[in-house]
Amino acid sequence: MIEKIYQYIKENNMLNDCRHIIVGLSGGADSVCLLVLLHNIIVQYQMNINIIAVHVNHEIRGDEALRDQCFAQKLSNDLGIVCYVLNKDVKAIAKMRGISLETAGRQVRYECFAQIKKELGFSDKTTKIAVAHHIDDLVETSLMHLIRGSGIQGFSGLLPINGDIIRPLLCVSKKDIIEFLKRRGIGYVVDSTNLQSDYQRNQLRNQLIPMIEKKYNPEFSKAVYHMATDLSEINDYIDGQVVKFEQICVRYDSTNQEPLAYLLLDEFQKVDRALQTYLLRAVLKKVAQTPVDIYRKHIELLKQLCQKQVSKKINLSNGIIAIRGYDNIILQKVVGQDIHLDKQEVWNPLSIDLSSMKIGEEQCVQLGINVCDINGIWHKAEKICLQLVDKKEIKNIYSNNVYTKFFDCDKISRKIDIRFKEQGDFIRIHANGSKKKLKKEWIDLKVPANVRNHILLLACENEILWAVGVRRCQTALIDENTKNVLKICVVIGD
Question: Which residues of 410-435 are buried (b: 16+ CB within 10 A; e: fewer)?
Answer without folding.
Answer: eebeeebbbbbbeeebbbbbeeeeeb
